Amino acid sequence: MNKLLAITVLIAFLALGAESFRVPRQAEEEEKGTIATVVDSLKSYYDQSVDTASSYVESIKGYKLEEKAKTLYDETVRAVSTYAGIFNDQVYHILYPQDSS
Fewest CB within a 10 Å sphere: which of 20, 39, 59, 71? Predict the structure, then answer.
């Protein structure tokens, strides 16, 4: 559950920040200024967060959650159908009682 929350937060962060992250290209100098150093560190943090999110997504795919959700849905539908049939039968016998004479 914690991984899923972390992935959701990372994807939201990346989706919101992807468009605003574009920085105009400047001529590279031999000495990097403060802004270039900050931009480089931000790019490395961004790349690291994308790699981490990708690894989390791959680990979630390994849990086969789609198959488990489908199985749970099928079992729930089967149980609800059974109880609905029982309820329907009970209501029918309340409305139309059979005489045993």
Answer: 20
Measured distance CA(9)–CA(56) in Å, rounded: 12
Average pLDDT over residues 2-19: 69
pLDDT(7) > 90: no
Q: What is the pLDDT of residues 18-68, one digit of tens each?
A: 555 555 666 555 567 888 888 888 999 999 998 888 888 888 777 777 788
d(CA 53, CA 45) in angstroms, rounded, equals 12
DSSP 64: T
What is the maximal distance between C-alpha atoms in the chain?
Answer: 106
Residue type, 98: Q
Token code pair at residue 82: 């059974």
Alpha carbons 35 and 30: distance in angstroms, whole number: 14
